[in-house]
């Protein structure tokens, strides 16, 4: 403390205020800020001026116009009579669908493969290693092409569909499953499920209290599984089995009816899951290896079996290392979904591109793309940060 | 991703360019020494590189004609292959001077996109192609209910398709790709039952399929597709040069001026031909356009008249063998009608 005071006093007495690092820093920042504002002002002004001179329409009013084009897969009601804004929402929902399903699948696969790389079994270890090395070193676009052109395109035409069990079919137009059609009283099943979830929550809570108080364990897993499956089943039976299946049937061009998964979605979903799983596997492996060996030795010394040690000691500690890099992988997967355009899956970028071309409003569309992707990414980060804080070491 | 990046860069160019729109394109072109022309990526007959990498086609000939008119040298042209989505941003941002890429002339492209269409170098209409071997008995587009239809995104084709099926109360499933090559590959692999685009395009694409003879083009034409070159608004001189380069090719066919006889024709006593070829005494027709007086001679020497270009690229002299049809001269029952040079 004393020496700092001396230096500051010394500097102040000998030189002008320009040599004060605080003031100098303030000046630099002000100059930079003014330059930045001037630059942005110039860019915006110049763009508006150029658009005006080139007679290119601008503004977001076009979003209310009739779209005029059809979209092959939509989670909401959409026709060519809908507005451009609705078409963008359809694209956004498709992006979110492939991102969410991809993230779930990639996480499960990545976790299994990551643990597999540390397995004692030589064969499992090597298979997982080869998997990681292959998918980590191929650009995601090529993985997408592999699934689309290499796997799904070479499936037979609809006439010679591959018939799978349960009346499902596979052909080069996608995957066709029987569609469940719920009848009267089906809401009882939903009620059953909600009640079951509430009861499971209660059981978990009580079991923990009891273990903390008495040390006795309660078979929570089996009870919960029984409740979640059993109660809806009971409701289903009570309502008189109100379920029929709509089975896909052959028509002139294609199979009709049933639940259809389009090949474009299938290829993108599989490619993103397989690609990202390789990275997640490495993160999981690093997380497990990051837990010191003493922890597993200590748990074995306490008499825990290898599976228990993994579940109760290793994984909870590994999660703290895993979650932050996992967030980046989730963001990557979401952003990579824009590669959908290469195989014609109508995601946000593909639909936006069509609108851009029909209306010529490139600046507006590019701005919408950027804002939406930024929004999705920030929301994902926010959630993962919350999750990370929750999982972090809580000291008692 | 690459295309998105291109579009973003194009948008950025709109922001940075100090004065793209107002500068005289002719001066810019002369200063850089070549015409930058936006063409299709690969549509045989209209614009596609041959086995030596030279661009060939009806749309490419128009680019060369403009270069010949400006520089007297048809090689002073550079080609920018564009897909359906990039083409408009490329023209708006000034990356290309001229868009000659089988682009349909529509009102909204003339107005809100800020373009001027300099004429029609091919009168076309949208049709459907199917694999007759896989779908025997289908001989009309009205039988396509429930079909999957391959189409390129961001085209008038995509909109006409939606309108046609809606108007006829038919169901369909669009399979939309951004690049022509991707649409071709998906159709050839059997992802779709039908392929729709301009009929000329269908004939051209059919040749690139694995088994061209299995595929037939259905008789219905569901739209008008006047294809022509486009330039930016706000530069009337450049607009005139492109417009009259096209007219000059059509007029040359009308007056029988060909690549072979153009030098002889310069001595013709016919006053119309003298005006066209700039041999009239004290002619100012070429210089008023900002060009030299022998501009038409240069065009015809480089690419021939419209009929020659047509036959060489898409007509009897090409594998496509498309009949002149609507694209015959007005004197022969077609629609090609050029305004007089006088």
Automatic annotation (TrEMBL), chain A:
PANTHER family: AMINO-ACID ABC TRANSPORTER PERMEASE PROTEIN YHDX-RELATED, MEMBRANE COMPONENT OF AMINO ACID ABC TRANSPORTER
Domain of life: Bacteria
ABC transmembrane type-1 domain sequence ranges: 92-384
Gene Ontology CC entries for this record: ATP-binding cassette (ABC) transporter complex
Localization (cell): Cell inner membrane; Cell membrane
Source species: Borborobacter arsenicus
TM stretches of this protein: 26-44, 87-113, 134-155, 185-204, 225-245, 265-288, 339-356, 368-387
Family, per entry: Belongs to the binding-protein-dependent transport system permease family. HisMQ subfamily.
A GO MF label: transmembrane transporter activity
PROSITE patterns reported for this sequence: ABC_TM1 (PS50928)
UniProt KW keywords: Amino-acid transport, Cell membrane, Membrane, Transmembrane, Transmembrane helix, Transport
Membrane topology: Multi-pass membrane protein
Biological processes per GO annotation: amino acid transport
This protein's name: Amino acid ABC transporter permease
From TrEMBL, chain B:
Segments forming domain Solute-binding protein family 3/N-terminal: 34-265
GO BP term, example: amino acid transport
InterPro entries: Bact_solute-bind_prot3, SBP_3_CS, Solute-binding_3/MltF_N
Keywords from the named record: Signal, Transport
Gene3D superfamilies, per database record: Periplasmic binding protein-like II
Signal peptide extent: 1-23
A Pfam family: SBP_bac_3
Family the entry assigns: Belongs to the bacterial solute-binding protein 3 family.
The protein's name: Amino acid ABC transporter substrate-binding protein
